[in-house]
Known about the structure:
By secondary structure, the chain is α+β, with helices and mostly antiparallel strands. It has a domain at 32-62 and 80-175. The protein contains 3 helices and 9 strands. The protein has helices at residues 2-15, 91-101, 136-146; strands at residues 39-42, 48-51, 82-83, 89-90, 114-117, 120-124, 157-158, 160-162, 172-175. The strands form 2 sheets. Strands 1-2-5-6-9-8-3 form a 7-stranded mixed β-sheet, with helices on one face. A hairpin with a 2-residue loop joins strand 5 and strand 6 (120-124). Helix 2 packs antiparallel against helix 3. The longest helix is centred in the N-terminal third of the chain and has 14 residues, at 2-15. It is globular, with a radius of gyration of 18 Å. Residues 1-19 form the signal peptide. This is WD-like domain-containing protein.
Amino acid sequence: MKTFTAILALAASTALGAAVPTPAEGSIAEPQAHNLTLVLGTDDFGEPVWRLLDENIPAHLQRRGASTAEPQPQGLVKRAAECHGNNRAYSDDCRTLANSIQYSKSPVPNSPRNIAYATCYISWSKVFSGEQSRFWAGAIDTLYDCTGGRAGDDHNYVSGVIRGYLPNGAAQCLSNRATGCS
């Protein structure tokens, strides 16, 4: 409904001759907040999972397989992730998932407690209310901490848990599995 309202407002302002704000020459426009579309499906074991599909990735992001420089969270108190050598997901899939939720205003689903893109799952240990963008900083820090050689020599894969970013003492995991985050 918010998307429809925003489009209607833009159309009305254009029809009435109102100026539509544009970025200043030479400046870079910040990505807009968005509602991320997830599809309820199942994993390889028949367990429910919220999936992000290629066609639902926000337009300002690159698709699967495109490698970009590692983004760094700004203004956060860094907490080290606990990295694991098992249940590792392809790091580019995790980077795509993390960047897709960065500005998402969509609500955190209560069940199942995971969001997936390709081989990567963001999962959490406890139910809480909030926007999906809450997962971004923990996912980026886990990517940074756990692809830097601490969990092995292979920088293309990641698995870890981070605490202190989510309410109610919930842990956040980044791995190749939908359940088991604690």
